[in-house]
What we know:
By secondary structure, the chain is α+β, with helices and mostly antiparallel strands. Helices cover about 20% and strands about 40% of the residues. It contains five helices and eleven strands; from the N terminus they run E-H-H-E-E-E-E-E-H-E-H-H-E-E-E-E. Strands 1, 2, 3, 4, 5, 6, 7, 8, 9, 10 and 11 form an eleven-stranded antiparallel sheet that branches. Strand 5 and strand 6 form a beta hairpin. Helix 1 packs antiparallel against helix 4. The longest helix has 19 residues. It is globular and about 45 Å long. The model has no long low-confidence stretch (mean pLDDT about 95).
Amino acid sequence: MVEKFSADYNVTCYDADHQMRLRPSAFLNMAQEAANQHADYLGVGYDTLDETKQAWVMSRMKVEFLRLPMWRERVNLKSWHKGAAGFMFLRDFILTNSEGEALVKATSSWLVVDMTTRRLARRGAFVEFATNEEKCIREDVIEEPAQKVVMPEGVEFVRSVTHKASYSDLDMNRHVNNVMYTVWAMDAVGLEVTEEFALRALEINFNNEIRPNDEVEISVHRLPESNTYYVDGKVEGKNSFIVRLEF
């Protein structure tokens, strides 16, 4: 029976925000590394895929922040591969405190991309991996997979900012790292919101990669009379990502 990834952490000063709570992006960084390490354990990690110029790319993620842990708090992160749905590979995460209380729950959908063509890779050797029950744990932290995020009608435009993809945004695949989209979205929503409210839920779709020096137009929209915001990013008019943030 395959084992779940499990690791303990202390919430560090650089993981905490100005209110001493775990930054949502810090949780996403933990989750990204958990997925990387567990993929190695399952035999489909970075080095294995790199031999054929392929890479894991996150397509969608849904996160529920039940309570953001505080600076110095001891937490545990677990993650596991759940199998495939079409071309997507599903992975769940749960962050708990030392008493086992659930703090953050997340489900994610991943694709394998050919890094030469920058297109979806053919399943090939991944067919066996996707269907191998011995490598899957059929346990749902969030039962429904992450869905397509669509800008609803009637949202109010709040503001727009421009960001140029630079050194600090990029990862080993030489495109903007998936965590940075949430960083941009939280920054774009603004301190007047994040000072008063903690993030309760996040849904994000990664639609097109953003490369070095791309100019990203980031627009913020709010559902009337709510604390729900939609943030989308476009490069030359083409949507690269969309995020739904609920405070």
